[in-house]
Write a structure and sequence with these properties.
Largest sheet: 7 strands, mixed
Structural class: alpha/beta
Helix content: 55-70%
Mean pLDDT: 80
Distance between the termini: 63 Å
Shape: elongated
């Protein structure tokens, strides 16, 4: 018994809740999402931002060569060459185009939303978010697992602590979560140091390994003998390399992050938000430079590790499994240098998880709340950190902290995002009738569709995990949309001069609004509707009546801004027109705006909607219209609890 009073317990619980739901924490400020413009002083030269994406992209060197050798064997260098060609001739042109089409960091997902729209576009976003979550979560768990492998294989690591890979990986994941709960500090400066040190050490290892390959031709001869013995026909070698290539798709990670961080790239002084040409140019340099650097390292690492490391060392439990370059560093450059290399690799692998966590914290809150498809706590950073960390724990335990076992899931997430980007730029070219780009990007999209399908067939774990994320996101999104259906959902109401004048002229009298669904919009239509409303509701004259018309735009949108325009029909009937994703929410927001502006409680008159109430409520949820009168009243009731200040709603 602690002796705490119930009041003290409640006070501590309240402080904990306030801390968890602090949406204005450091993370929200320091890591604006892809749909939020960062402050001007937080923009950096493109090469520094490249390092931020590079902690994810370049860190795959820690495990990519080992996975390639295990998957392709003696074919690893040739399969890696295919990977490099697909990177430079496929993924790079696609994302250079995404940078032009989406200069504010929205990425390929937002491009598809703009191209498709409505509920199919929203459903596609939920599916792609599931694959993105797979990509980022597996980045956290796989990188932590590979960092554990480097720790476990280091000769200076106490032997009594070996054999606890799962526990050590969980500890690294927990440490990552703790950093984000505390508040993530400036990432770019740390990333520049980590990338510079890591690539520098890798260059030393590569140069030494290439020298050994050149000066020991027997090793190359042994590799060539193994290759020709197992695959005598050169065309068979090429064909098998193409078939094996999808297993090496881990080397394609980093492109989606590269366009997501575009708002952090410093552009030209004359850049505007409509034409940020300098930022686009910097982002394209970022993508190209990162791809070229990674391609050089991929080719050289694949050749040297395949030629110099015995095949059995790559097998599960072998000293080169998941750490091929670290194996070369220890074998050829000594234990001290090898340990320094291990420390650098562990740091960048762990920080790659930080990059992935930042990506998740940017991506999920920027999309789902805009669609009304997230609980209110999803706007806060810390609850999401706890959720993502718990999921990473689960994935780590399920896969037993194995790098090889998680490779398929990681590749699936990466490939689906790149395939969606290739599809998005192809569809954009189709809309603009750019024949050359349609052919080029269409061919690239086909290649990535094949690669994705081949990876799914070979290693279905990625789809299973993605299906788990997709199912969870869809269920939570639908429940959230239902629970938030009666929110006001309007950020701002703006009146044009004519609309403002109509309201101000009636501010001293009773303001009557008639909800009207326009048809022919002629004088006879408004006269008939006015007579019907007066008869149904028995108000004496029509001197203060204003018609209100809401035009439904995209009913799948959630939050919106209202622009109210005033006009006169036949110089007799005043009309307020507005566009919104939902009729009842727009009317409720307009009524509250009129009340606050005129300091009078307006009256609005509806016709009862024909049809069953259940069907009409479903129409409201899906299409933004249906049970308009009762839903408008319910929104007002929730928004304004004081009945004495609530606008009047009449239905007849």
């Amino acid at each position: 018994m602690t002796g705490d009073t119930p009041m003290e317990v409640d006070r501590r619980a309240g402080r904990l809740r306030e801390w968890l739901l602090d949406a204005g924490s450091e993370q929200a400020v320091r890591h604006p999402g892809p749909h939020r413009r960062p402050p001007e002083h937080r923009r950096h030269p493109w090469w520094k931002v490249m390092c931020l994406t590079g902690v994810d992209y370049f860190s795959t060197l820690g495990y990519q060569p080992g996975i390639a050798a295990l998957a392709a064997g003696a074919l690893s260098p040739l399969a890696t060459l295919v990977l490099v060609l697909v990177t430079l001739l496929g993924a790079l042109p696609v994302y250079r185009r995404v940078a032009v089409e989406s200069p504010h960091g929205e990425g390929s997902i937002a491009m598809l939303v703009r191209l498709l729209g409505y509920w199919p576009g929203k459903l596609l976003v939920l599916v792609l978010l599931g694959f993105a979550a797979t990509d980022f979560i597996i980045t956290i768990t796989l990188s932590a697992a590979d960092a554990t492998a480097h720790i476990d294989e280091n000769p200076f690591w106490p032997s009594g602590l070996k054999g606890h890979e799962v526990l050590l990986t969980l500890l690294l994941v927990a440490l990552l979560g703790a950093v984000f709960l505390k508040g993530f500090t400036e990432a770019i400066g740390i990333a520049v140091v980590l990338v510079a040190v890591y690539l520098g050490l890798n260059a030393v290892v590569m140069v030494d390994a290439l020298w050994r390959v050149v000066t020991h031709p027997s090793a190359v001869g042994d590799w060539a003998t193994t290759l020709t013995t197992g695959h005598g026909d050169p065309w068979m070698v090429v064909g098998l390399s193409l078939l094996v290539f999808p297993k090496l798709a881990l080397g394609l990670s980093g492109f989606e992050t590269g366009v997501a961080v575009m708002p952090s790239v410093r552009g030209d002084p004359q850049d505007s938000e409509d034409r940020p040409l300098g930022r686009i140019r910097g982002a394209r340099r970022l993508l190209t430079t990162a791809a070229v650097i990674m391609s050089v390292f991929l080719i050289t690492s694949s050749v040297t590790t395949t030629v110099l490391i015995p095949p059995e060392a790559f097998q599960p439990g072998g000293p080169a499994n998941g750490r091929a370059l670290a194996y070369l560093a220890h074998e050829h450059l000594g234990e001290v240098f090898g340990t320094v290399y291990d420390l650098s690799t562990i740091a960048i692998l762990w920080f790659a998880g930080a990059s992935a966590m930042a990506g998740l914290l940017n991506l999920v809150p920027r999309y789902l709340p805009r669609y009304g498809m997230a609980p209110t706590w999803a706007r806060a950073v810390r609850p999401l950190v706890l959720v993502f960390t718990a999921v990473a724990f689960l994935i780590t335990v399920v896969f037993e902290a194995s790098v090889d076992a998680q490779g398929g899931a990681y590749a699936t997430g990466v490939l689906v995002l790149i395939t969606s980007a290739a599809t998005a730029v192809t569809l954009a070219a189709v809309r603009r009738r750019q024949r050359g780009r349609i052919i080029a990007f269409g061919a690239i999209a086909v290649i990535f569709v094949y690669t994705t399908l081949a990876n799914v067939v070979e290693r279905p774990d990625g789809v299973k995990i993605a299906a788990f994320f997709i199912g969870g996101i869809i269920v939570i999104s639908l429940l959230s949309r239902l629970s938030r259906a009666f929110e006001l959902r309007v950020d701002q109401v703006e009146l044009d001069p004519a609309a403002a004048r109509m309201i101000d002229e009636r501010a001293g009298r009773r303001i009557r609004l008639i909800a009207h669904e326009p048809d022919h919009q002629d004088e006879a239509e408004y006269r008939a509707r006015l007579a019907e409303a007066m008869a149904d509701n028995d108000f004496p004259d029509d001197s203060d009546v204003i018609f209100v018309e809401v035009h439904v735009t995209d009913p799948s949108d959630f939050e919106t801004e209202l622009m109210v325009r005033g006009s006169m029909v036949d110089d007799r009937f005043p009309v307020l027109s507005l566009a919104s994703s939902s009729v009842p929410n727009a009317l409720a927001a307009l009524l509250l705006e009129i009340r606050d502006r005129s300091r009078r409680r307006p009256h609005i008159y509806f016709e009862w909607t024909e049809g069953g109430p259940g069907r009409n409520v479903l129409r409201y949820l899906a299409f933004g219209q249906g049970e308009i009168a009762s839903v408008t009243r319910e929104i007002l009731r929730r928004q304004e609890p004081d009945r004495r200040r609530r606008p009047h709603v009449h239905a007849g």
